[in-house]
Amino acid sequence: MRVLVLGGDGYLGWPTALHLSDSGHQTAVLDNFARRGYDRELGVDSLVPIEDLDTRVAAWHEVSGQQITAYSGDLCDADFVYRVVREFRPEAIVHFAEQRAAPYSMIDRQHAVYTQQNNVIGTLNLMYAVAEIDPDIHLVKLGTMGEYGTPNIDIEEGWLEVEHNGRKDRMLYPKKPGSFYHLSKVHDSHNLEFGCRVWGLRVTDLNQGVVYGQQTPQTIRDPRLATRFDYDAVFGTVLNRFVIQAVLGEPLTVYGTGGQTRGLLDIRDTIECIRLAVENPAEVGEFRVFNQMTESFSVAEIAELVADTFPGPVQVDHLENPRVEQPEHYYNVKHTGLVGLGLQPHLLSDTLIESMFPIVAEHKDRVNLGALLPTVTWRGGLKTG
Ligand code: NAD
Ligand code: USQ
C-alpha cells in the first residue's frame, strides 16, 4: 500500500515509517520539525543522538534498499497538505503530527493555544484534504488513552451503549481528559467522527497509552536510524524517565502517592499496531476506535519495577504532584480490538527494562540534569493579578 506518515520525524513516527517500509509498503513521511524546535525552546535534546530527516532517509535506503519519500511542511498549511495528498496519492495516512506533551500544553495560555491550534486545525485541514481529494483514503489517527481520563466505570473501545429513561443509543464514550493537550485529542476525535458520519470518511482512532522503549528491529540496523529518547520533565514519559533516572543515579520522581494508573505499551507494539490498522482498514463511514495499550500499571508499580530491575541502588522520591489528577482510582480498560487483528503484545518483562540501561549509560553525558525535575504545574500557568 501507499502510506503517508505524518509526524514521521518524531519518536514514534520515524520507527513506524521504517516498519511500514520494511513490511513492503510504499512509505512517505511528512514533518515540520516542530518537535526539534521544542527541544531548543526547552534547552534539552534527545538522550540518544538523532540524525536529520534527510540523513535518516538516506541511511534507510543504504541499509534496506527501500526508498522513503520525505515532505517537509506544516499540517496547518492547507495548501501544502492538499499538494502532498495529491502528489503522493496515499491509500492510508497515519497521523502522528501533533504537539504531544501534556506539560507543554499547560505552561501558559500561549502554549495551550498553540497546542490546540496546531493539533485541531492540522487535523481539520487533513480531513478536508482527504474528503475533497479522495475520501477512500483510510485515516489512522493517533489519539490517547488520556482522552477518557480515569472514570469510575469500565473504559470501552471508543463507544458506549447507553440506556437512558428506557431508550438506548450507541454514543461516543464520555471523555474526562486531564490537560489541554489531552483535550485537543478529544476535539480531534469528535471532528473525525463527524467526518465519518457526514462525508463517509473511514477513520481508525487509536487511543494509545504511554509508550516505553527506544529500539525497534529496524532502528537497530544502523545508529543513523535511531529514534529520539526524551528524559526531560516536559516531553519524557514516565517509564522512560524512571529508567534514565535510575542509570543517572538520580531519584525516581513519582508524582504524589503514585497511585495513579495508566495503560502502557512497548514501542515495538506501537509500530505493529499501526501496521495492523493500516492493513485492515475501517469501513466507509466507520469511526473505528481501538484502545492501543497492552498493560496497566500504577506509577508506584512502575517505579518499583525499575528499582527492582536496576543492578544498583535506586532512590524513589514522592514529589508533590505538579498535575491535577486523581491519586487513586478505578481503572479497567477494554483493549481487545488490536489483539483481534493479530497483535501479539510484548509485555513488560525485565528483559526490556534491562535492555534500556546500556542505551542510557552510553549517552548519559548528554543529559541536562536541570531538566529532570518538573517545573510546569497545572495551576501555575495562570498569570493572575
Ligand atoms: P513526537 O513529538 O516525537 O512526534 C510528533 C511529530 O509531529 C514531531 O516530529 C513534530 O515535529 C511533528 N509535528 C507536530 N506538529 C506538526 C504539524 N503541524 N505539521 C507537521 N508536523 C508536525 O511525538 P510522539 O511521541 O512520536 O507521538 C506521536 C503521536 O502519538 C502524537 O500524536 C501523540 O499524541 C501520540 N501518542 C504518543 C504517546 C507517547 O507515549 N509518546 C502515547 C500516546 C499517544
Ligand atoms: N509521572 C510521574 N513522574 C514522572 C512523570 C510522570 O509520576 O516523572 C506520572 C504523571 O503524573 C502521570 C503518569 O505518570 O500520572 C503519566 O505521565 P507521562 O508524562 O508519562 O504521560 P502523559 O502526560 O499522560 O503523556 C504521555 C504522552 C502523550 C500520550 C499519553 C498517553 O506524552 O503524548 O498521549 O502519554 S496517556 O497517558 O494514556 O494519555
Automatic annotation (TrEMBL):
CDD domains assigned to the protein according to its UniProt record, in alphabetical order: SQD1_like_SDR_e
Alphabetized Gene3D superfamilies for the sequence: NAD(P)-binding Rossmann-like Domain, UDP-galactose 4-epimerase, domain 1
Pfam families: Epimerase
InterPro entries cross-referenced by the UniProt entry: Epimerase_deHydtase, NAD(P)-bd_dom_sf
Domain NAD-dependent epimerase/dehydratase: 3-291
Superkingdom to which the source organism belongs: Bacteria
Family: Belongs to the NAD(P)-dependent epimerase/dehydratase family.
Name of the protein this chain belongs to: NAD-dependent epimerase/dehydratase family protein
Organism whose genome encodes this protein: Kribbella koreensis
